[in-house]
């Protein structure tokens, strides 16, 4: 789980951005870890594709450099792809992840970097949502007050992941890749990407994301993207319920992000690592041209069914 401090760092980096379509809150906290290795991105209107939004959470391990670089550049790689210009957003996301991963090897500041990072990213283009994920960060949504899954965790003991790892010459021990890495897809982690007879999507650890497409309708309430520091402590449904209750009680998205992190923070560093990780949360309230107050009223109605 990594080394821990004698006391947690609970200072939070919190932000809020909004327009007529979204009200977005984000927050991250170092917690018990010695260093902060997460990164995140929220862009309400992409520079080269106005009106299209991009959100991402990157959970670094072994260092922060890969997560930081991906947070600054991944969205640029996506929208510059030929597939994106051809309106094949899912293909653009898959290819851009692989392209970025290769580009980082050639980057002077990263070529000897041993760290890696998860990436869970969402593009909203019109009424279409595309979620590309690799690793064990996660994205979920509330639709009419119910849980909607937007990503799948990539763990070494999943059969598909296990088979790829073994076929590439790796092994799984104690649910870890080569007894070391607790996730099976990531940016970086180049020590696990050295089988010259395999393509990038077939390596022990691959940077190829899975992409889930959804159509956003008027009954979509909000999205939550977060690193595994949250999901190790709370289930997806518990997070949805928590956010609904907080919205109904008048909290803003950025306040709710902070509340979730404090809810997950361990009281000490002895709980097998649970609640001791870096934490990052992004909440995207979907306004559908209305107001946040209207979403609050909807969430009050959901409380009667919880």
What can you tell me about this protein's structure?
The protein has 306 residues and is an alpha+beta fold. The protein has helices spanning 65-79, 82-85, 89-106, 159-167, 228-231, 236-248, 253-264, 292-303, and strands at residues 4-18, 22-33, 38-43, 53-61, 116-117, 119-125, 128-134, 138-143, 146-149, 172-173, 176-177, 187-188, 210-215, 220-226, 279-286. It has one domain: Phosphatase 2c, domain 1 (4-Layer Sandwich), CATH 3.60.40.10. The strands form 3 sheets. Strands 3, 4, 5, 6, 7, 12 and 13 form a 7-stranded antiparallel beta sheet that branches. It has a 6-stranded antiparallel beta sheet with strand order 1-2-15-14-8-9. A hairpin with a 2-residue loop joins strand 8 (138-143) and strand 9.
Keywords:
306 residues; alpha+beta; Phosphatase 2c, domain 1; seven-stranded antiparallel beta sheet; six-stranded antiparallel beta sheet
User: How many domains in all?
Assistant: 1
Round the Cα radius of gyration to an integer and report it: 19 Å
Oligomer: single chain
* Helix content range: 25-40%
Tell me the overall shape: globular
CATH class: Alpha Beta
Please state the structural category. alpha+beta
Please count the beta strands (DSSP E, at least 2 residues each).
Answer: 15
Major sheet characteristics: 7 strands, antiparallel
The overall pLDDT average reads 95
CATH topology: Phosphatase 2c, domain 1
β content, as a range? Answer: 25-35%
- Counted by DSSP, the helix tally is 8
Q: Architecture in CATH?
A: 4-Layer Sandwich
Low-confidence stretches: none
Q: What gap, in angstroms, lies between the N and C termini?
A: 34 Å
Name the CATH superfamily classification: PPM-type phosphatase domain
SSE arrangement, N to C: EEEEHHHEEEEEHEEEEEHHHEH
């Amino acid at each position: 789980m990594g080394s821990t401090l004698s006391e947690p760092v609970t200072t939070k980096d919190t932000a809020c951005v909004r327009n007529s379509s979204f009200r977005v809150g984000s927050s991250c906290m170092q917690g018990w870890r010695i260093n902060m290795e997460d990164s995140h991105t929220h862009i309400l209107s992409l520079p080269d594709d106005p009106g299209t939004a991009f959100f991402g959470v990157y959970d670094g391990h072994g260092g922060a450099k890969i997560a930081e670089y991906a947070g600054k550049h991944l969205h640029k790689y996506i929208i510059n792809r030929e597939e994106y210009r051809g309106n094949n957003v899912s293909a653009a996301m898959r290819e851009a992840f692989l392209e970025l991963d290769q580009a980082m090897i050639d980057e002077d500041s990263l070529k000897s970097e041993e760290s890696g990072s998860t990436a869970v990213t969402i593009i909203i283009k019109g009424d279409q949502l595309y979620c590309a994920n690799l690793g064990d960060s996660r994205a979920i949504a509330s639709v009419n007050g119910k849980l909607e899954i937007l990503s799948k965790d990539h763990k070494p003991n999943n059969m598909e992941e296990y088979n790829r790892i073994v076929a590439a010459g790796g092994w799984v021990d104690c649910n870890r890749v080569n007894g070391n890495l607790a996730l099976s897809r990531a940016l970086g982690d180049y020590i696990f990407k050295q089988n010259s007879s395999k393509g990038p999507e077939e390596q022990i650890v691959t940077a190829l994301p899975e992409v889930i497409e959804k159509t956003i309708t008027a009954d979509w309430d909000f999205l939550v993207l977060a690193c595994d520091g949250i999901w190790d402590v709370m289930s997806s449904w518990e997070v949805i319920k928590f956010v609904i209750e907080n919205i109904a009680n008048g909290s803003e998205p950025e306040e709710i992000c902070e509340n979730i992190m404090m809810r997950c923070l361990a009281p000490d560093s002895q709980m097998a690592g649970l609640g001791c990780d870096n934490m990052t949360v992004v909440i995207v309230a979907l306004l559908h041209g209305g107001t946040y107050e209207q979403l609050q009223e909807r969430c009050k109605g959901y409380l009667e069914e919880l």
